[in-house]
Structure formats: C-alpha cells, structure tokens
Automatic annotation (TrEMBL):
Its EC number is 3.5.1.88. Its cofactor is Fe(2+). Binds 1 Fe(2+) ion. This is Peptide deformylase. The active site is at E144. InterPro entries: Peptide_deformylase (IPR023635), Peptide_deformylase_sf (IPR036821). The gene is def. Removes the formyl group from the N-terminal Met of newly synthesized proteins. Requires at least a dipeptide for an efficient rate of reaction. N-terminal L-methionine is a prerequisite for activity but the enzyme has broad specificity at other positions. Keywords: Hydrolase, Iron, Metal-binding, Protein biosynthesis. It catalyses: N-terminal N-formyl-L-methionyl-[peptide] + H2O = N-terminal L-methionyl-[peptide] + formate. It comes from Cryptosporangium aurantiacum. Belongs to the polypeptide deformylase family.
Length: 178
C-alpha cells in the first residue's frame, strides 16, 4: 500500500493526529481537491486488490490532516463521501468482528463496534446531513471516522487480543459478510 501512496503506521505520525474540519462552503475548493485525491487513491488501491466487503480511505492516510473520508461498499455505486463527520448516536447493541486497514494491511484484528450509527456530516455547500448506517456499513464508517480522530482499530482491540497475519485470518473463514 505504501507504493500506492497510503501512509503506513510505522512511518507517518499524521495517522495519530485529530484532523481539522473544513469551513464549508468557504473551503469548498480545498474539500473538492482532497475528495478528488481520495477517489483517485481509492481507485488505485481497488485496481490492485479486490475488496469484497468494502473499503474506506481517510484524508490522513494520504497525507491530509483534514476531516474527510470516503467509503466504498460492494452494493453501492460510487463512494460515500463523509465531510466533517461526527457520530451523534451509537446503538447499545454491538458486535466483535475482524477489521483490516490500508495503513497496516498485512494483519487483521478483532474490534467491537456498534451495529448502527447516526452520523452528522456536511455536503460540499455546507448543508448538514444526518445519515444512519447499519451493520457492516456502520463498521466501515466508524473505522474511517476513527481515522479522522487519530484512532486506529488496533487501539480499540481488547487488551488480550493480538493482531493476526492476514494469511491466518483468511484460513479462519471469519471474514463474514458486508
């Protein structure tokens, strides 16, 4: 992933820093430029790896400390763009599943996440949006919002769990459906 321009945990401190919100619509040109770069990098990544369960990419992963991420799912055409997102509600119900990350791609770890989220975000013109995300899409969105807060999925793992090499993870068939 490093050769595709994706920041790696072992060498990019930006992955651990909270991002800066956009002042929309005043910063619409900056937001458009970063969203275009996210789309381009995501296309590059998807060209070399098939993500049957979806994938996301946050601005810090491509060198921008701004509050924007995109999420691709297998069943939605085009990415979901999250500008200035913040979680306003988490379900009490949660589940533990394996997650991976483009910034440390060769391992997977078990993470507890809510089964649904309500997220407030903005359109490019600054219009507020409120969206409810369910199931695996909620997990993807939560993962990307964590990136925007400087949190990585390994930070959310139970203290007794360890990262699993991707080869071992694939052999467990614990992938589940998204």
């Amino acid at each position: 992933m490093r050769r595709l321009g994706i920041a790696q945990l072992d060498d990019d401190p930006l992955l651990r820093e909270p991002t800066v919100e956009f002042n929309l619509p005043a910063e619409v040109a900056v937001a458009r430029r970063i969203v275009a770069e996210l789309r381009a990098r995501a296309a590059d990544v998807r060209a070399v790896h098939a993500f049957r369960k979806g994938m996301g990419l946050a601005a810090p992963q491509i060198g921008f400390g701004r509050r924007v991420a995109i999420v691709h799912t297998p069943d939605v055409r085009g990415p979901i763009v999250l500008l200035n997102p913040r979680v306003v509600h988490r379900s009490a119900a949660d589940e533990v599943r394996f997650e991976g990350c483009l910034s440390f791609f060769d391992v997977r770890g078990k993470v507890r996440r809510p089964v649904h989220l309500v997220v407030e975000s903005q359109a490019l013109d600054g219009t507020p949006r409120t969206t409810r995300f369910e199931g695996s899409l909620a997990r993807l969105v939560a993962h990307e919002i964590d990136h925007l807060d400087g949190v990585l999925y390994c930070d959310r793992m139970a203290a007794t769990d360890v990262l699993m090499p991707v080869e071992h993870y694939r052999a467990t068939e614990a992938a589940g459906n998204y």
